[in-house]
């Protein structure tokens, strides 16, 4: 078996490609994909019958070049619209919720949005329990709400 792999190193490099691609599924940062691209370069050099040290050199060179040249483009495509999509607590702005503890004028209360309870303030009059509110802004984890 080992003698077969030594005489067919392209097969070993192909296995490295698939292992790297499977590992990339759990990481998602495209570094392991770059090593898979390097393994493709090594497999091609193995198919031409080049010595093992040249194959390793091809793997390292192709990996580094893909980290510099391909990875930034992949990340750019993956995160192309990320500046337009709010995340975390910013995604709550504009959403409607229900008051679970009265929001006093000049004080604090609590509102529930999608099952999560958030501390809230209001610039207007007191908002009673059970009333519908809209989140208009936030300061850290404190939401500013208005009556709907």
Automatic annotation (TrEMBL):
Entry's localization field: Membrane
Gene3D superfamilies attached to this UniProt entry: Nucleic acid-binding proteins
Keywords (A to Z) from UniProt: Membrane, Transmembrane, Transmembrane helix
Membrane topology term: Multi-pass membrane protein
Residue stretches spanning the membrane: 6-23, 30-46, 52-70
Location (main, coarse): membrane
Domain annotation NfeD-like C-terminal: ranges: 89-146
InterPro entries: Membrane_assoc_protease, NA-bd_OB-fold, NfeD-like_C
Keyword check for Manganese: no
Gene Ontology CC annotations of this record: plasma membrane
PANTHER family in UniProt: INNER MEMBRANE PROTEIN YBBJ
Protein name stated in the entry: Nodulation efficiency protein NfeD
Gene source species: Segatella baroniae F0067
